[in-house]
Amino acid sequence: MASKSGPSAANQQVKPGMIIAAVVALLALISWLAYANLIAPPSRPLTDKQRETDAWIAKLAKESGGDLNKLSEEDRNKLQQMTVGHGEYALKKALGQQ
Q1: Helix (H) or strand (E) holding 50
Q2: Neighbouring residues of 20: CB distance < 8 A, sequence distance ≥ 6
Q3: What is the Cβ-side half-sphere exposure of residue 12, based on CA atoms within 13 angstroms?
Q4: Pick from 68, 96, 92: which is nearest to 80 by CA?
Q5: How far apart are alpha carbons 70 and 72 in whole angstroms?
Q6: What is the model's pLDDT at position 41?
Q7: Is 59 contained in some domain?
Q8: Do 79 and 57 form a contact (C-beta atoms < 8 A)?
Q9: Domain for residue 29, yes or no?
Q10: pLDDT at 6
Q11: Which residues, including other chains, have CB under 8 Å from residue 74's CB and lie 6 or more apart?
Q12: Distance CA 28, CA 34 (A)
């Protein structure tokens, strides 16, 4: 004979409070996504300094072919300082490789 070790199927009903909590959480998630994608203001435009920096990195990327080791030591150090050690990634991104 098989014995029942857990509660019966009739006792495993979902409580109404849990359903309400799940619906509220779902509505909050949908509201946040709608705000972020439909209502939120657009991001700020780039400043002139940011455009100059991007242009300089793009120029370096073309000159070096995206290889950090082909840059002069001065340019490499400046790039690494500007990108907080992610100079190689910045060069590849400027070339559209990442």
Answers
A1: helix 48-64
A2: none
A3: 4
A4: 68
A5: 7
A6: 82
A7: yes
A8: yes
A9: yes
A10: 59
A11: none
A12: 10
Whether 35 and 73 share a structural domain: no
Residue 20 lies in a domain: yes
Q: Which residues of the chain fall below pLDDT 50?
A: none
Residues 54 and 91 in one domain: yes
Domain hosting 69: range is 48-95
pLDDT at 98: 66
Domain presence at residue 4: no
Name the token pair of 20: 């309400």
Token pair of 62, please? 């073309």
Paired tokens of 5: 């070790």
In whole angstroms, give the CA distance from residue 29 to residue 32: 5
